[in-house]
Automatic annotation (TrEMBL):
It comes from Streptomyces fimbriatus. Belongs to the 4-toluene sulfonate uptake permease (TSUP) (TC 2.A.102) family. This is Probable membrane transporter protein. The chain crosses the membrane at residues 39-62, 74-92, 98-116, 137-163, 169-186, 226-244. The keyword Transmembrane applies.
């Protein structure tokens, strides 16, 4: 299968996931870029940030139109994570590829297990505690910078489980966090963007944007809990494969 077809297919899956769940795009994009398209771990995490910024911004517009975005909460998360994301981005460039792959796999696996064990979504929003929101946002920012993901696969569960947002609102709000965190981390890697293969990255990103719009429509028809369980199983399988590859 040609690189172009692989890029289009993987991009569509990444966008669909991000649009439907408010996250998970980067955590699928990184292994796709490494194992399907042959990028190094460092290049893949940089390319993933580009994809996540563009795709999450596109998906965010659809959720905002439907009134499913808590802007104040999302911006608080994002503001707290901006500096950690930049520091994480600088650190990632100095870490061995195998270590990045193993760390990515462990974080993804932990997130998948948490999603599978989590109780059902909250029935209604509760008041947001700024200190808890800022602490969670800072942690997510650091992970975004190091691993090259937007942090949505962790942000949405945090917005539901820690802050008590409804799942559908957490998905929309998580996209604010994802966009801002990925953009902050990308600023630390701006000098390496021109080294990326845009003949692959361009089609990948374009397909992801189209997939994100379809994902937004899917999230309105299928329960958030069902979507998260499917994604969690997929994420756990990817995490196990990447961990084995990093260790062996």
């Amino acid at each position: 299968m040609s690189a172009l077809i692989l890029a289009l297919t993987a991009g569509a899956v990444v966008g669909l996931t991000l649009g439907a769940l408010g996250g998970g795009g980067g955590v699928l994009a990184v292994p796709a870029l490494i194992y399907l398209l042959g990028l190094t771990p460092v290049a893949a995490t940089t390319a993933s940030l580009v994809i996540v910024v563009v795709t999450s911004a596109a998906a965010l517009s659809a959720h905002a139109r439907d009134g499913h975005v808590r802007w104040r909460t999302g911006l608080l998360f994002a503001a707290a994570g901006a500096v950690p994301a930049m520091l994480g981005g600088a650190l990632a460039a100095r870490l061995p590829g195998a270590l990045l792959t193993a760390a990515f796999a462990l974080v993804a696996g932990a997130a998948a297990v948490r999603m599978l064990r989590r109780r059902g979504p909250a029935d209604e929003d509760v008041p947001v505690r700024p200190v808890r929101a800022a602490a969670a946002g800072a942690g997510l920012g650091g992970i975004t910078g190091v691993l090259g993901v937007g942090g949505g696969f962790l942000a949405v569960p945090a917005l539901v489980g820690v802050l008590g947002l409804r799942t559908r609102v957490a998905v929309g709000t998580g996209l604010v966090v994802v966009t801002a965190n990925a953009l902050a981390a990308l600023t630390q890697r701006a000098g390496t963007i021109d080294t990326l293969d845009w003949t692959v990255l361009g089609p990948f990103t374009g397909a992801a944007v189209l997939g994100a719009w379809d994902g937004g429509r899917l999230s309105a028809k299928v329960s958030g809990e069902a979507l998260q369980r499917v994604f969690a199983v997929l994420l756990l399988a990817v995490a196990v494969f990447m961990l084995i590859d990093a260790v062996v």
